[in-house]
C-alpha cells in the first residue's frame, strides 16, 4: 500500500511538472520568426517627418517596428501600414502606446519630410516617418541585412523602388527580437506585440 501511495504521488508530481513546463514553453512561443542575437541592436540617426534629426534612443522603452518602403509604393507599403495599424489597435488599450512603428523611406529624392509625415499619419498617427540621404539609408539597410534599388524612370520621371517587405521588431531595450512576415495574420501579430509590450513593462 505504501508503494502504491508513493507511486501515485510521483505521478501527480510528474504531471504538475509537465503542466508547468507546458506553461513556460507557451509563454516563450512566438508567431513571428525569432531573431534574438541574429541582428544588431536598433541604431540609427535619421531625419523625422517634422524635419528633426532623431536617433533610436528617442523611442527607448518602446517596442519598435521598423520597415523600409516609400510613399509611392503601390501595394506592399500601404498594406503593411494598414495591417500594423489593425494589429496595434487590437491590443489592450493600455498597451497600444507602448508600440511605435518606424517607417523608413528609401526614396529621399521624392519623399520629403512633409510628404512622409502626411503619408504615415494617414494610416496611424503614432507611426514615425523617417528618411535620410541615400548613403545613410544604404548603411542602415546593410546593418539589417537587406537592400533596396531604383528602377529606370519612365518618360514622366516616375520610377519604382524595390525593397524588402520584412518588419523588424525591437524590444524596449532596442534588441532585435522578431521578424514579421508580410503574410502573418493580423491577430498573430497582435499576440506577439502584446507579449513584447508586457515584457518591456516588467
UniProtKB/TrEMBL annotation:
Keywords of this entry: Copper, Disulfide bond, Metal-binding, Signal
InterPro entries: SCO1/SenC, Thioredoxin-like_sf, Thioredoxin_domain
Location of the Thioredoxin domain: 35-202
Residues reported to bind Cu cation: 73, 77, 163
Molecular function terms, GO-annotated: metal ion binding
Disulphide linkage map: 73-77
Record's signal peptide: 1-19
Keyword Disulfide bond carried by entry: yes
Keyword Transferase included in the entry's annotation: no
Gene3D superfamilies, per database record: Glutaredoxin
Entry's family note: Belongs to the SCO1/2 family.
Protein name per its UniProtKB record: Protein SCO1/2
